[in-house]
Structure prediction request, 684 residues.
Amino acid sequence: MTRYIIQRLIYMVITMFLIATLTFFLMKFLPGTPLSAADKLSEEQQAVVLEKYGLNDPVPVQYFNYMTNLVQGDLGISFQFDNREVTTIIMERIGPSMQLGVQAMFIGTIIGILLGLTSAIYHNGMLDYSSTFLAVLGQSIPSFVFAGLLQFFIGVKLGWLPVALWEGWEYSILPTISLAIFPIAIAARFMRTEMLEVMGSDYIVTARAKGVNKFGVVFKHGFRNALIPLITVLGPLAVGLMTGTLVIENIFAVPGIGEQFVKAINMNDFPIIMGTTLLIAFLFIFIILVIDLLYGVIDPRIRLAEGE
Amino acid sequence: MDNQKPSKDLFVPVETKETEIDKISRPSLSFWQDSFIRLRKNIGAMIGLAVLVVLALLAAFGPYMTEYGQYEQDLSRAKMPPKVEGLGWLGMDGMLSDVQSADTVEQAKTKAMMRFNNQEEYITTEVLNDGSNGEAAEVKATYDVYAAKNMDENFWFGTDGLGRDQWTRTWMGTRVSLYIAFLAAAIDMLIGVAYGGISAYYGGRVDNYMQRFIEILVGIPNLVLIILMILILEPGIMSITIALAISGWISMARIVRGQILKLKNQEFVLASRTLGAKDSRILQKHLIPNTLGLIIINTMFSIPSAIFFEAFLSFIGLGLPTPMASLGTLIDAGFDSLQIYPHILLFPAIIISLIMIAFNVLADGLRDAFDPKMRE
Prediction:
């Protein structure tokens, strides 16, 4: 297990290193100069500015400086907000994004599990068909389309909830629902399949044979065992949520990382794009790692296989 | 006792020939025939397939059904509501309506008239609430845009903010989505299958290096890749294509590798090799066909995610550049005037949802059809 963790950590470092290196060299090959008004500045002025930001150094030295800064958490300075550090901007905006992500993940998996469980218990019944149908819809309809529908009908037409902005908990309801649809659908479908498989296994028959009532069979023997494989989809779900926040925050004008990211793309603010990209990459790799390790800890069969 | 016993000569031994026992009574079905029969029985999958065919036909011929080009701008006909003869009951009647409330009926009426530029001869008002019960008075005004603008032709899906025909643009956008679907399938089939197949078949050091490479590649999120691509190339169909080509095949390669690892030591492969078959023949004739079910299922599932990916990128402004139409950019534009002109968002949103649902349902159907466990 320790060897496995170390191996995974090494891969994580290699991947991050590769992404950061790619990022740096792409920034170097970008057309244009970092000076927005280069033609208005004299040669000496340009030289002073370039000197100040270390842009006169040879590329390997710049690369070394960039990497050392990066390791210390310094992501550079934003183009659109003068003299504001990318790290500060990201730190200011990570709160709403995190809140939305965690809420959506929490609500999404719980509702999804319940839906999937209902489907499996009433297999091939009306409830099963309708929840499977809902899950297909939730999996298929893009989150930004769904967000638009919610915003139009609940926000504009009915006026029950605020259309956009971020001024209190009620402002987080619509974005959270829009984000949670995908986890609900995926968790429901996965839970249904797993539960059906588990309920067909021998130990369930044994439990029934020794007289455990239906509730006990479903929840004590079935549900807990069906839950384990669900951990494997949590990783892709979390990644999906991270992608989802980019658009959802934009639609609902939530001051989070995603909204800043889309703005930065439209403004060509490369340091912010790069900083956010690195952050997304890091979170992505980290979440996958945590979930893989968690899986090993929770499922004893995997631990045994590793121990051999 | 009148116990009538059946006479003994009613009992005749059944004459079974030795050969009859082994005779197969029904024609044997190949794996593919069997799967196809099961797929045809799946109503959802067949509906999905039909929807896809209809959408593909509309994407192919839709833009030629009206006389407007996808880039033809005309501000005098901006934001026209959709109008189709005979579909008025669906709301596609070319009317704009709005509910205004004020203290008195007269004030509400004035507000409603102002909302539609005071063109009174084209506005019909309807009093919803005359305000006598203490509530605010509400007046619903309906404005006949086509009559007011003296427009003879109908815009089936309306027009966007620059007066471009939404019908033409929606189907042009659908073409992009279908191109992406085709592309994702091709990449999965070509790169993914080849990579996984070679990696598993040759094994050993080749496999080791190829897998290490995949492990590094899989660590880089798709989104990060496309952003990096777009920083080098211009945003557009080319950079999306390249980003998909870099990352789209990885899961397929892994699945094919796993399957071929399982197959390659089985007896029929050994037999083929004993008969002198070359590596390429064994791969093409024995290993790949036996993996084909999995390959098709996985391809079908990667198609909707690729379509979503393109629409998503276009939506956040990383996809197709402005004048071009993709369902993502159309939806993005629709959000700008969602409150007053929801139709601009509505049609592209419906089409992309239909495409995604159809592909997902079809993929589910194929998975069930290829699964021998589902056989009755």
Observations:
- The longest helix of chain A spans residues 214-251.
- Chain A touches chain B at residues 11-12, 14-15, 18-19, 22-23, 26-27, 29-30, 136-137, 139-142, 144-145, 148-149, 151-152, 156, 239, 243, 246-247, 250-251, 262, 265-266, 270, 273, 277, 280-281, 284-285, 288 (CB under 8 Å).
